[in-house]
Each structure stands twice: as C-alpha cells, then as structure tokens.
UniProtKB/TrEMBL annotation, chain A:
Origin superkingdom: Archaea
Protein name listed in UniProt: ABC transporter permease subunit
Presence of keyword Zinc-finger: no
PROSITE patterns named in the record: ABC_TM1
Organism: Natronorubrum halalkaliphilum
Automatic annotation (TrEMBL), chain B:
Name the UniProt record assigns to this protein: ABC transporter permease subunit
Organism from which the protein derives: Natronorubrum halalkaliphilum
Keyword Cytoplasm: no
Keyword check for Transport: yes
Occurrences of domain ABC transmembrane type-1 (ranges): 98-319
SUPFAM superfamilies in the cross-refs: MetI-like (SSF161098)
GO CC, alphabetical: plasma membrane
TrEMBL record, chain D:
GO annotations of cellular component type: plasma membrane
Source domain of life: Archaea
GO BP: peptide transport
Subunit text: The complex is composed of two ATP-binding proteins (NikD and NikE), two transmembrane proteins (NikB and NikC) and a solute-binding protein (NikA).
Segments for region (Disordered): 350-408
Reactions that this protein is recorded to catalyse: Ni(2+)(out) + ATP + H2O = Ni(2+)(in) + ADP + phosphate + H(+)
Protein name per Swiss-Prot or TrEMBL: Nickel import system ATP-binding protein NikD
Organism: Natronorubrum halalkaliphilum
Residue span(s) of domain ABC transporter: 7-273
Catalytic activity, EC: 7.2.2.11
Biased composition (Basic and acidic residues): 353-364, 399-408
Keywords of the record: ATP-binding, Cell membrane, Ion transport, Membrane, Nucleotide-binding, Translocase, Transport
PANTHER family: NICKEL ABC TRANSPORTER, ATP-BINDING PROTEIN, OLIGOPEPTIDE TRANSPORT ATP-BINDING PROTEIN APPD
Amino acid sequence: MATTESQLDDQEPGAAEGGSVDEEVETRVGWRYTLAKVKRDATARIGLYIVAFVIFIAAFAAIDSNLSRLTFDTMSDYTAAQAIPFFDHPTRIPPPGEAHPNEPPVFVDGGSLSHPLGTDPQGRDYFTRIIYGSQVSVSVGLASTAIGLIGGTIIGSIAGYYGGWIDDLLMRSVETVYAIPPLVLIIVFTVFISGGSPDIQYAVIGVGIAFIPVFARIIRSRVLSVREMDYIEAARAAGVKDRNIIRRHVIPNSFAPVMVYATLQIGVTILIVAGLSFLGYGAQPPTPDWGEMLRIAHGRYMHSNIWLSIWPGLAILVTIMGFNLFGDGLQDALDPRIEN
Amino acid sequence: MGLLRYTIYRLLQAIPVLIGISIITFVLANLAPGDPVRLMLQGQQADEELIRTIEQRYGLDQPLHVRYWNYMTGLVQGDLGYSIHRRRPVSDLMLERAGPTLLLVLSAYLFAIVTAIPLGIIAAKRRNEPTDHISRIVALIGVSTPSFWIGIMLIIVFAVRLGVLPSAGLVYPWQPPEAAGHGSYLEHWTETIRHLILPMIALGTLQMATLMRVERTQMIESLQEEYVKLARAYGVPERTILRKHAFRSAQLPIITIIGLNLSTALGGAVLVETVFAINGIGRLFVEAIQQLDYQLIMGITMVLGFMFVVGVVITDISYAYIDPRVTYGERE
Amino acid sequence: MVAGCIGGDNGAGPDGQHLLYTQEVNPEGDFDPIVSNDAYSAQIIHQVYDGLYEYDYDLELQPKLAAGEPEEEEDGERYIIEIVDDAEFHNGDPVTAEDVAHSFTAPVEEDTDNRPEYDFIDVDGTEAIDEHTVQIDLEHPYGPFETLTVATYVVNESVRTDDPDDYNTNPVGSGPFTFDDWTSDEFVELEAWDDYWGDPQPELESVRFEAAEDDAGRVSQILAGDTDAIATVPPEDWDQIDGEEGIDVHRTESPSYMYVAFNCNEGETTDPEVRRGIAHAFSMSEFVDANLGDGGTPIASPIPPIVNEIWDFPTDDWDEATPDYDPDEAEELLESGLDDPDDWNPTIIVPPDDVRIALGELIASRLDELGYDAEVQSLDFATLTDTYISGDADDYEMYILGWTGGPDPDVYLYNLFHEDNAGVTQGHFYEGSDDFHDTISEARQTADQDERREMYIDVIDEIVEELPAMAAYSEHNTIATQDYVTDMQPHPNVSYNPELVSDDNNVGIDEE
Amino acid sequence: MSSEPLLRVENLKTQFFTETGTVRAVDGISFEVYEGEIVGLVGESGAGKSVASMSLLRLVESPGEIVGGTIEYKGETIFDLEEGPDGELREHPDMLSESEMRERIRGREIAVIFQDPMESLNPVFTVGGQLREFIEINRELPKDEAKAEAVRMLREVGIPDPEDRYEEYPHQFSGGMRQRVLIAMALACEPNLIIADEPTTALDVTVEGQILDLVDDLQDRYDTSFIWVTHDMGVVAEICDRVNVMYLGEVVEQAPVDELFYDTKHPYTSALLDSMPRPDRTVDELEPIEGVMPEAINPPSGCRFHPRCPDAREVCTRVHPENLEVDQAEGYPHRAACVKHDVFDVGYDESVPLEKGDEAETRVGETGSDENVDSTVEEGQASTDGGKANEANQTNRSPNRDGGESRP
C-alpha cells in the first residue's frame, strides 16, 4: 500500500490540520516557548485549565479512594470513614434506610443538596461516581497513550532509522493493525486475552496496542527527516552507535510534534474506552467509569431517569474537549503557519 | 497506467494487509481460552466421541498452521467459515448484514460531507469572526462527544419526547416496499430516510467535526496560495475563488481523511448500531463476541478490514482523479 | 384473501387489524417445534401451532387438540389421549393421532435439542390407536408428563418428514395464524388463518414480529409510536409508560426463578454457616423493591410463586426460614464459619444483566463493609456457561442465575439441584442429605401428583435450610401496548406471549 | 513619455497589525510610472517591495492594511483618504469601490506576474483553462474565442504546441514555461500596466535570460508599462528604465537606471551594487552588505540604514531623511534619502562617524542571533513581504542570488 502509506504519513498533526510543522523552526522551538504561546492563546488556555482540573480531580479522587479503602476495613470503622468530608464512597451501596435510589439532581423537584447530581439506581451519590470516573478516564487515557507512544516510538524509530526491509516489514505490520477498526480490534483483543472476562486493564493494553501504528508512523516520518541532518551524519561518521544516535538525537528531535499528537490522542483514547465500557468490554461494575455508567443508564434507565445518561456524557465531553483544546493549542504554538 | 489496471494494482497491494489481518485475528482467536466445541454445546453434557466428531467436522483437531492454511484456502474461494453458534456460513451472514452497515456509514459520510464542507469554507472565509468561532466550537464538541451518547440524546429528544422520528431499526431501500409493510415506494423511501436520520447524525457527527476542522484549515491555507492571490489580482470574483480556485485543491486532504476515517466510522457503527438496534455488521459483531463465535468474529474482522482497504483504494483513486499531479501508480 | 393482505400496512398504528409486536430478541429461526429450542421462536410457534394441551392464564393445562384429560394406564407408563376430530392443518390435512405420536417421538428419534424433555418416551410403544386416539408409552413413570409434556405442539408429520429443513422455516401448523414471511434477524410475518378450526377466530388479520434487544430501545419504540406492543418493560419505566397518554402496561406473574448459588464444592461457601451469613448480610426485599419495584417479587423457595400456588406449597414456612437482613447476625455467622476470615475475598460471577449485576454489587458492597473484599465479575453468557459449572473456588464462590420453566417443581429442582446436573446446569455441587438427590429423582419418576408434592416439600425444606442456593426473586412478565390494542394480556408462560387468541382473550385493534 | 503619469503613488503607507506590534511594511513611498516604461522596485527581501506592489491593486491581506497615501491610476483614484468632519480619516468618495477595482482595474488595467511560477498556477486545473478564465473575465470574450486567444497567447510567449499544452496541467510544465504562461496571462488581459513581482527569481540563470528577452520583446510590441520588482541589480540593469530602491519600507533612491548605476547617491544602493557582479566593472571581490536588514516592526531610529551603513555618522542616528531630489537626469529627478547630500543640510559633515562594530553590532544583534527562536518564528508572521513562512528561508540569503537555484 505504497500510496496509502504516504497518505498516512500526512496524518501527522501538522498535515491533518494543514501542513507539516516547519522543520527548521520546530527543532529550535523550546518547550518554554511553546508553553508561553499556549498560555497566550485563550482557547488553549481553557484546554489547559480543563486538563489540569480533570487531572487534579482524578488525583484527588485517588487519594480519597485510598482513604476510604483504609477506613472501610471493618464495619465498626465504617462510621469513621463517613467522616471524610469530600465525597461519598463511589461503589458502596448504602444500606437499607439510607438509600434513596434514582434521586433527581438538586435543581429538579425532589433533589437535594447532599446529592447534587442525584443518586443512581443503587442509591449511590452520582456526583461522587462522576468525580471518580475522571480517575478511570484520565488514568486509562494516559496509560494507553503511553503504551501507544512507547511502542510507536520503538517501532517508528527503528523503521525510520534503518529503512530498507526492516522499515518495510515493520510498517506493513503496523498498517495491518491500522486496517482493523480500533474499537473492533480492541474488543477482540480484550475479550480473547482476558478469557471472556474483560476488564479495564485489558482494555488499556488493547487501546495502547491499537494506537501504536499512528505513533509509529509519526515517529518514522520525523526520523526520516531528522536522519538526513548533518549532525546525525557527523555522529554516525564519528562512530556513535546507532542505538545511541536514535536515543540521543533522533527521538528528542521528534518529540514536539509527537507530544501534540499524544495530547490529542488522549482524547481519542478516552472516547474509545468509553465506547468499550458502553458495550461492556471496558471497566466492569461497580467501577465508576463514565462509559459503564452510560451503559447501565441507557440499558434500563434511559426513560425513567435521563439524568443518569446526561451526566457521564457531559463529563466525557468536557474532558475530551479539554485535551483537544490543549492539543490544538500546542499544535498552533508549534506551527507558525496557523497563526491567528 | 489505466484506471482499471491501477485499481487492480492497488487491490493487489492490499493483499498483504488482508493476510496480516487474518493472521492477527487467527492468532488472537486461537490464543483465547475456552473451547469452541464446548461453547457450541452450550453446557450440555457431551461424550468425548461427540466432541471429537464435531472437532473433525470443523477441522478443530488439526494443528494451528494447518487450520490457518485451511482457513485461507477457504477464504480464497470466498468461504469465510461457518458460524457454529448460528449454524450458518459466515459469508451468508456477512452478505445479509453488510447492507445496513454500508447504508449507515455511507449516509453518515454524506451527512458529514454535506454539512462540513460548506461550514468549513464559511469558517475559513470569515476567519476569526463569530461565524468562525461558532463553527469551531461546534466542531470541537463534535470531536469530543461519544457517538453513542449523541445517539441516546437524539432518541430521547426526537423519538421519545417529540415523537417525530423512529428510534430504532432501518428500512432498507433495496427491499420491495411490501417486505417492510409499505404500500408504495414513496412511503418506503420516506421511511428509509426517516429511519436513517438519527443514526446518521449520531455516527456522522464525529466525521463532520473532523472534516470541518480540516476543511477550514485547508481552505485557510488554500486562500493564502499564490494562485488564489493571482486569481484575485485578475479580478476573479470572490465567490468563484471560494468555489473553484481555492476549493478544489483544498479537498485533496479531505479525500485522504475520508478514506482513513473509514476505520473510525466502521468502529463507530458498532456502537451506533447497538444504540439504534440496527442489524448491521457492528451489531452482529457484538453478538458474536457475546457468544464467542470465533469463526464469525474472524469473518467480521476480515470483512471490516477489507472494507477499510477498499475504502482507501477508492479514495486513492478519486484522489488521483482530482489531483492531476497524481498519475495512477505513483506521484510525480 | 391471504394474498390480498400483502402490501397492506403492517406498521404500527390503529389502521386495520394489523399488529406490530416487538420481541426482546430475534427468533433464531427454528419454527419447527420438534427442533426449536429458543423462547422467541417458540413465541412464533405458539401462534402457528396448537398444542395438544395449552396453559391457561393460571398456568393450568386445558385441552386444545385433545378432546379431554389424558388417561393414565400401566402405573403411569402409558397415557391414552383422545383428540378432536375437526382439527385441520393450514394445508387442509386433518390433524391425526399419527401426527400427535410423531410430535412426541421425533425429538427422541432425531436426537434434537429438545430430546431431554422427551427422553423418557418409549418410541416404539408410542403410536396411533385410531385416527383420533393416541397412545403414548413411557420408559418409566414420569411425574411432569401431565403437567409439562402434554403441552406439546402437534406438527404435520407428512409435510415435516417430506423436507424437515424446509418445514423448519415454512411451518405448517393448525394454529390460528399461518406463517407468511421471515427474514433472519429482521422480522416474522404471520397472517390470520381464515379457516381456523378452533374457537375463537382471530380478530387480527396479520401480526408482524420484530425485535429490539435492549430494554430502552423497546421502550423508546412504544413511546415513539413505532410499534403497537412491546415485550418486557423494565419496571423503572412502568410509571412513565403507564402515565403516557395512550399506552398501557400489562403484567402478570411468571414461573421465573432467580437465585444466588453458592459454591458447595470448594472454598469457604461449602460451610452452611457462611452461606447463611451472606444471606443475612443484605436485604433482598429492599433490593427487589429498589431494582424491580412492582416488576418482581422476592421469593423464599426455589419454586416461583405462581407454581407454589398451583401446588399449594407451604410457602409461609419457607418465608420464615429465610434469613432476613441482619448485619450483626451476618458478622457473627461469617466470623465463626470462615476458616480464614482474614483472607476471604469471594468472587461473585453474574451474567451481563443489569439487575443481576446490581444484586452482585449489593452483596459485594455489604461484604466489603463486613471487611471481606468481594469482587463482582460480569461475564458473557458464553463464558459464564463455561465458568459457573467448574466448581472451582478460584472461579467463583457465588453465581447469580435464573431459570424459567413450567408449573412443575421438577423443572427447578431436578435441573438446578440434582447431582445429575452438577457441572451441567448447576454449579454449586451441593451434596445434600443422604436421600436429597434420590428424592428428587424419585419424585420425577412418580406419576401420582400428591405423592410428588410431599417429596418436594422435603427437598425444598432442605434447600431453604441449607442454602446451596438462596432464592432471590421472580420477575413478572410484562407487555406494553398502545391503547388501541384490545384484549392483550401477558401470559405467565413467556413462550406464549403475546397470547393473541385463546379461550380467554382475542387481541384486536380498535380502529377508531 | 507623456507628462501625465499612468500611475502615481504618493506617500503610500501599508501596515500590518500583528500581535507583536505594528509592522510598517510600506512607510510612505512615492513614485510614478509613465506609459511604456519599465520601472524597477529594488531591495532586499523584507524591504516591502511586494507589499507595495500588492497595495497598488488593493490586495493587501489581513492583518495588513493601507493606512495612508494616494494611488492614482489614469486619473482614477485607487486609494485615497480624506479627513472626515470629526477629524478621522475615511475613504475618499472618489475612491474606486471594491467591485470597481475587481471589474475595471485588476487584470484589465493592471495585471501581475508573481514571483514563483511553481506556486502561482493552480495545480488542479489545466494551464489553458486558467488562462482562458482570466481572458473571459477581463476581455468579456465568449468561451471559444477566449480559448483561441489563450492558445494564441501561449504561442506568443513561446510555448511550443500551444494547442496540446493548453490541455496540460501546471506540473507538466517546467519552471520557465510556467513563467511564460504567467506572462501570457498578464498580456492576454491587455492591461496597461503589469506588475512583475520578482518574476525570474525562482528561475535558473539561462531561463531568466530567455524570460527577460521575451519581456523586452513583448513590451516593445504591446507597449505595456511594467513595475519590475526584484532584488537583483543585474536584472534591473538589463530591463528597467527607471529604478526605485527600497529599504525597510521606504524608497531610498530613485533615478533612471543608468544614472543610478553610474552616479549612485545612496550608500545602500552602492552596497547593493557592490554585492553583485557587474559586467561594466571589474572588482577583485564582491562585498556582501554588512549585517541583516532589521525588522520593519522596530526600525532603527534616524536613517534606517545607518546600522549597516559604511558612511554612517552620528547625525544619521537622529535624523530621518526624506527622499529628496538631489540631481536630475534624462528629465527625471534623481532622488536619494541620505543626509550626506547637501540638500539635507543637517550637519552631516560635522557629525562624528560611527565606529564600526559599535552600534552596528548591537543593532544587528538585537534582531539576530541571541533570540534566534523568536526572530525566525516571527519572521513567518511579520515578514513584510507577505507573511509566509517560506519567506523566512530567504531572509538569510545574500541579496545577490547565489547561483542558479532550480526546481524540478
């Protein structure tokens, strides 16, 4: 697929949004400069804030969750655990009497401030579950993007640096993976590898693997252009080992555009994992995952309690939007041609 | 190279990819725990003899590479295997289910193209004006929203609350009206469209948003091209410049992206078909996974991969058609 | 006339006697009762075929093609059944005793999926005595014959044997509707049979079956007016649907039984104290209330309430014996019962069904609070069927499943508790008292229903006491219809739904 | 030469409003073009030549804007401002409207030839189609006649087999051939003035020669006026009648071509001339101009050339020289914006010469090396020649074109 490949190369962030990042400029652009530029752009700034906020919440929920776990060890300690002022427990189903299943949000008749987004059919505080959902989404997004990034970097840099049949072999294999719709590939992977009991960790690996191709492709095309640069020639002439050349020169030089792509990719990943959970192949109950919450909400409560469908969707939307805005901002900052 | 020869050449190039897909799915399916024969018997008590008979019938007693070889020889003859669970040839199921999926995906694309291109052009033309900002926000929301959630919201609003559009299923235009219980072709096709609208929007929004973003940047770039400046300098009206001079070359990346996004769209069809109860390949896939119907899962993966490859070839060909610089075979 | 209907409007709406009914799942496409083994094909079969006997709304058998009650002979090893003389198949063939005999022997002779339910039939002895009298011989007395087996649908032997494969998708029955058209995974079309031999003649002219697998999808369709009637409404949506102008929800008890089974083969749950402790840890009635509302009822025994009623079982005793919500008691029982209370992390496996997942979550949540880290695993049915029969404590210590059968305790007790079915349809591997399994099989092979009743009471007493599986709830059958659909009443037997034409009702469309 | 100029530009100012500040790309230039003459507009990249020429057609793109001055063409006002009742500037009522510009001026009266023949033709349309479209629009010919005319023009500019090549796409043409097509476009619309914006820069030397000969020949036959924008003094010498030398948005010297070459009045012009090989002089070695042209966004005080000027004195840092007439030649004024000439009388002679490496160094440094990042990126957006990133590549190139650069 010669032509396909060259088209796929165009898929790198610059091209997808119009033209590749100017070589000479990019290599000289530092991170400090990029961040300064992102900060100057209002939309990118909003993106940065959303991303920071969601990550903060996720980290916060992680701490909170550990606290709860520690304190929930025995029944008698349970009351103490309730003293945690921030959130309810995300998965604990309130015992009889305490539970008010399917309570509407606070601004609707019958809602109360103690459950600002209402409760789920089990009587759990929906706000808590939404907040904890960020933890799952963000960690899944980061982890699987990291897998894709690392895998893609290894494959892409080897393919690009050595060229020839190694390049052919690696890139053809990678294209093959790309040809299967990611969602389908990930489900097949998740279900088969997990032996029919899918869970979020398999999904993370599956998503990571499914996105190796895109990263491999970007890295490779960067490597191809960096490879020809004089100082690489010089390093090679000076007898520096290939591995070291790749590690010290080629990869750092390809870093900036890849990071842009990775940022945008986190959004895509969260979207895919949400779909996966929605079909029941991602996070499993009672994990407070947005996709999983939507699955339950859609399956049984779409009509009786539409709020259950609305909140997780909005949470996904805002989170992904944050990553997209931030990624766009990074990209604009790195590409002088798309300048307002 | 002529168009036909180019097409054949490109399709031949796709063969290694298809072989690759078959290896991936085959390996995945056979690494999996669980025994297809046991599954087929669905928990019924079966003696060893019966299991062996079934294994023999489906060639499951052979070593892996022999099974792969058998599978591939079957594949060459258009035999995608046999769905143990459904007791039907996989290729029959595929033929049956490909129609709805294609109908859905193509109409989603149509929706995406028809809305994204004019909006993208307007945004590019009125860059940094309110129109541009609004369309950018719309595009941003579009790329950030899960298709299935859009589907759910659309059903709640349009099918349930307003009751103006159907919430599930499709009406197939290729069927005679009687099969769907319609009196006339007019009614039949009206129903086809009514049923398509919501799933089409749910699946098409992401594509629309992506295309709109690309269209906008491409048009902005294109409007800065020297030849556009030249056209302006020669008194070509702005409208002609937008519609002709800047437009055509700006579409080239769009075509590429349409082709490549086919993969996302086919994946999205799995979700949208589930939400809208559409009997396409996507839903069949979900069912096959639930039933761990190995042959069917492999068949679906192969067919989806094949659809993607064909889609890319088609876009390649139209690319070559629109961009005179691309000769069939290689670029200058 | 039949042809004239083609092209008519079969969509939703009160125009003409055409009903669009949305099932939960598409029929697999086996419309030959001999072969068919799925509830959704069975729902079609029920319209196309008449049974020898059929269940009424109380789940009592009433003669349909039979002319009267079966006559038991030879200590329950032979039954003589007379059939009506005016019954005809759709193709004009009369319904004969030969056809009836074939309907009982074919599942065994052809070794179809339905064989287990007919396995006791003596194929050689079963034959037509004359044109309207059939003799059915059994290998041994079989208790449920009179309560279950006689409800067999009668197939047209000559057409069927001529081309069995074609018959499967072009069934010829003697029921009120004829099979018109079918597209796999899409729809089934039935036409009313104008020359129906039985009474009453169907009011509807045609019925179209479609399916929407997720509950929300079906509810959307009925709310949007895309269909005339839907099967199974999630209880949460009843209020909304019922409140909706123009839509009615109908419900009825059903012989369904959901349970939480414990692994009695391995691990901590082999100790009955632990099992009782778990049962005390959560409130089933609260759960049913919150998750099913009026859609189901909590149960105390492995027999659904509607069957209890028929058999007049002492349910009050069982209700009393059932552990109620008592966290202190639970804590105590678990602490004393567990061998290793510090390291007990039970796994609960559940099918991908939201209610049962929620029940699993509830149990896990309660156990969490007692300091045991329980895990809920929702498995695909395919995986689940493999897993829950392994008996391996690493796979599961509890599983939540259900069983829907007929009005005979044997269905529940033999399949779900007898050792024959350990590792087949039950995964708790409960050993039981010395005569526990013997009593179940003996009752199975006893023709006298009163004797059987006594035996079953003993068995159920033990189950309620020892809790190899704790009964959870019984879900009701529901159908929602547009209000122009008249006389629709869901049948307790799911495979009869929608019951369109019976002695008690006749569904029609109010065309105003 | 008639007394009334075809085109009169007076005190034209075009500015770009960017995030980093206002770029005075064209800062008050004045010149005339008479019928039948070729007027050169010379300077290094970034001097504002291209912006100036696009300003003439009122095609400056956002964020650029013409902010002052007058452009008159054949007595019609292309651009003019007047003071409104409240003292604010507004467009003069005589000014041609946008649609008048499009319908009457662009293409029809004033045509352009762009610098890069590779980029100026639309790759997805046939060469003939593009040519025909312009003819249709500007000469109101029906399609078939326009086509015939297009073929004729292709032949006229020396394209062999014009009928066949009419149907071909730009990528099937060589650079020189494409430039001929662009010339054909310009001529085919029968304008009175053609603005040629570095039309030969992208071509290799032999092709450049052919094109120049062609233009010379066609200009004789069609008697069209040209504004020839270039940085190449060699081309100027070969083709122009009169020359305007631009530096940082200003015209610093204006004279008939021979006068300019033989009686150079501005040190910048001298520097330009010294940096190129000249057929009329033998020198031991070429002297490149010191330093890099500063940014138009923050021009040096006084004379903008003083940081790089060998003759710079203290006064040059303070006094900003107008482009004043310092001589007469061939009936045209010879203007120069350098205070060393007597007409300025600002005390140049008494002023202290600036020490080399003193101010010059810092000035250059300010925009050069230490904030390399910024300058290169900003170049993309603020470069006065049109704001394209690729322009950045040329910034560091010596004004003397370094040999033949040809593209496939």
